Amino acid sequence: MSDSYEDLERKLVEMRAGYAEHLPSRIEKLSAQWQRLKSLPGHMEEKEAVIRETHNLAGTGESFGFSKVSKVSRELEQVLNKLWKSGDDEQLEIAKGLFLQLAHYGSQDADVESMAVPIMNPKVVGKNWSADKSNRILLVEDGKDFADELLLHLEYFGYEIALLNSPENLAEKVRELSPAVIIMDIMFPSGKDAGLEAVSQLKMGLQAVPPVIFLSERDDIKARLAAVRAGGAAYYQKPTDLYQLTETLDRITTPQEEFPYRILVVDDDITYAEQTVLELKRAGMEALCITDPMKVNLSLAEFRPELILMDLHMPQCSGIELAAVIRQQPTYLGMPIVFLSADVDVKNHLEALRQGGDDFLVKPIAADHLVTAVYARARRARQLKAAMVRDSLTGLLNHRNIGEQLGRDIARSKRSGNPVTYALVDLDNFKQVNDTYGHGVGDQVLVAVSRLLRKRFRNTDTLGRYGGEEFAIIMPDTNIDQAEDILNDVREKFALIQHSSDKGSFRLTFSAGISAFPACETPSMLVKAADEALYWAKEKGRNRVRKAEVCNKDEKKG
Questions:
Q1: Which of 71, 369, 526, 527 could form a disulfide with 422 if both were Cys (CB 3.0 to 4.6 A apart)?
Q2: CA distances from 298 to 230, 282, 295, 332 (A)
Q3: Pick from 146, 122, 138, 212: which is nearest to 172 by CA?
Q4: Helix, strand or coil, per DSSP, at residue 257
């Protein structure tokens, strides 16, 4: 059963109220434990429990509107660690003062106004427990405040969370849910390594265990090494950077689809060429051979190879001459060309490289050597191309390439008759984020936006960073009303996400303008109409999506 937007807002209010109600008693209990233990030797397990509770307050206070509680708790944690290691009287006096501050700030009202964001047109934004288990996460965590915060955060990014308060029934829960990932705390009341031990036992009892992300208050090398030995896929110290944790979940649960490398073999020896193609195909690559070098341009255009494997000596033209012809065409300037020939003359090898070749392999060559060499160079070529066409921060297409893709999608839609919708998304008041919290936090927000967009949109949609805090989205086979619903859903989810920084937590919204083909007939018309709709959304108060009502038919670039 899914939660409505109102349900989620109600839960947030209830969580904050509950936290505020119980905070004074939590601090009073913590202070009493400390008073009893402060001058006693030993009792390390009880002292660790005091530090753990202090650590929890530091990590959760700010999230519920008690930023001063977080700040004092963070200082207190450091002081208690020093005190119980050294017994220093000066640290004892500092701890007394910090406990007094903690009690004072814990009894004050929460400052939650800055966390409230007005949301328009509420829709369903909660989790929908589906049959698809690829986004299902099992969280094993006994800290209620941290668990609640993490549950809400991950739900905003489309994950489905099951919570287990103890690792005791881990195997049973894994069999029941078949989660894609387990997020496991290491320390529990039953033992400081209880989480590690539970995962180790799980691996002994189950044939297939999902990846495990460990959480811990410890950051020492022994704890990290133990997590590695238990087979941990990742390790995060508390308080946890939820953005980094989500990024790791994205990487684990959504493996990138690896398309086969495309190799064009140009060799006048048909038998050898076909054998080479067979070996490359057996290794999982797509390969095409041509024996007539005069047809290379046609094959380049239709097959779109990522690497050319070319003989040096061929009738009508040599491989060196053909490489020069290919290099004269800007589209193929970066195309890797590897020469494959029985020619052992080093001078010819060097001349081939001077004329545009990237490497030279000598026939005869073992099949595994050939496959390894071609695979490595094709992979490198794909990585370089990706670096050239994608924004380095977000991984989305850059401005130039999102524009080129829009042109291709419109051309395809003209043939099919299906619509294409184009959207411009711009973060509201983003300059204030950079000015207040710093550009590092601003970059973190941009990454969060790109991650949310990748989660919500289809593989057939194209996402790009248009510039600064502005993003572009191309949605083939989608009409403008469908696009409006999708963007409003994403907008509402994004507005609920809490962004963290050393200077405090905050929330952010975005506005969007959308236009569609065939109402707008060209790429420039689509961009101009979407930009004007976005401007209207900003003028009318931000945090909204606007459809372009008309499309200016002139060809002036907007």
A1: 526
A2: 54, 25, 6, 13
A3: 138
A4: coil
Q: What is the CATH classification number for the domain harbouring 342?
A: 3.40.50.2300
CA angle, residues 353, 355, 359, in degrees to nearest 5: 25
- Note the pLDDT tens digit of each residue in 260-271: 899 999 988 888
Whole-prediction pTM? 0.48
Query: Which residues are CB-contacts of 280 (< 8 A; sequence separation ≥ 6)?
Result: 263, 265, 287, 370, 371, 374
| Residue 515, pLDDT above cutoff 60 | yes
Strands of 136-140's sheet, edge to edge?
A: 160-164, 136-140, 181-185, 212-216, 234-237
Q: What is the mean pLDDT of residues 40-68?
A: 75
pLDDT at position 173 over 80: yes
Tally: H helices and E strands in the chain? 19, 15
The per-residue pLDDT for range 231-288, each reduced to its tens digit, is 888 999 887 877 778 878 877 886 555 678 999 999 888 888 888 888 888 888 899 9
Q: From the CA atom positions of the chain, what is the Rg in Å? A: 30
What's the gap between Cα 191 and its chain centre? Answer: 33
Give me the pLDDT at residue 133, please. 65
Q: Is the dihedral of CA 217, 223, 224, 226 positive or negative?
A: negative
CB 379 within 8 A of CB 261: yes
Q: Which of 198, 221, 253 is the last residue of a domain?
A: 253
CA–CA distance, 46 with 52 (Å, rounded to integer): 10
User: How far is 411 from 405, CA to CA, in rounded Å?
Assistant: 10
- Alpha carbons 511 and 535: distance in angstroms, whole number: 9
- Residue recorded with tokens 């008690």: 66
Q: Which of 345, 363, 388 marks a domain boundary?
A: 388
Mean of the pLDDT values across residues 445-470? 86
Sign, Cα dihedral of 60, 66, 67, 70: negative
Quick one: tokens of 294?
Answer: 């005069």
Q: Are residues 46 and 165 in the same domain?
A: no
Spell out the SS3 assignment of 172-225. HHHHHHCCCEEEEECCECCECCHHHHHHHHHHHHCCCCCCEEEEECCCCHHHHH
Q: Give the pair of three-digit tokens for residue 95.
A: 């701890």
DSSP letter string, 406-430: HHHHHHHHHHH---EEEEEEEETTH
Residue-number span of the structural domain to which 297 is assigned: 262-388
CA 547, CA 549: separation in Å to the nearest integer?
Answer: 6
Count of domains for the chain: 4
pLDDT value, residue 40: 66
